[in-house]
Amino acid sequence: MLELVASVELEVPFHDVDAMNVAWHGHYLKYFELARCALLRRFDYDYPQMQTSGYLWPIVDCHLKYVRPARYGQRLRVTARLLEYHNRLRIGYEIHDRDSGERLTKGSTIQVAVDATTGELQFVSPAIVLARLEQACAD
């Protein structure tokens, strides 16, 4: 099993917090998305490459576990890890305080391949995904 991980750093912006200066729970998915795109770029299969390859990859499942709140101005490190790729893309996430390393949130998403022309669900990951992953691991 290959190990593919990517991290991004961000600062919680004012427009992401509520009246208690806590990041609104829905924004954590946006933070996951930033790390997911960084992970997908690691094997040259970000959203533009997905579309070019003829497949769409909707998220069909998402889980989040809020451990501690993220607050306005807090520096975060968001990590995405590829957990499965043969039949779907299952990605695990962790959000940590950048400075202390304390874990704030964890979660996962599942994406499935859908043929962009026919709309048919693919029950195995398309060959292009496996080829891109093999190439990334060889580099």
Binned, the helix content reads 25-40%
The major beta sheet can be summarized as:
5 strands, antiparallel
SSE run: EHHEEEEEEH
Q: Please, how many helices?
A: 3
Radius of gyration: 16 Å
Q: What's the end-to-end separation, in Å?
A: 16 Å
How much of the sequence is in beta strands? 25-35%
- Looking at the structure, what is the overall shape? elongated
SSE layout:
Blueprint: E1 5-11, H1 27-42, H2 47-53, E2 55-56, E3 59-66, E4 75-84, E5 89-97, E6 103-111, E7 114-115, H3 127-138
Antiparallel strand pairs: 1-4, 2-7, 3-6, 4-5, 5-6
Q: Could you characterize the architecture of this molecule?
A:
With 139 residues, the chain is α+β, with helices and mostly antiparallel strands. Helix content is 25%, strand content 34%. It contains three helices and seven strands; from the N terminus they run βααββββββα. Strands 1-4-5-6-3 form a five-stranded antiparallel beta sheet. A two-stranded antiparallel ribbon has the order 2-7. Strand 4 and strand 5 (89-97) form a beta hairpin. The relative contact order is 0.22.
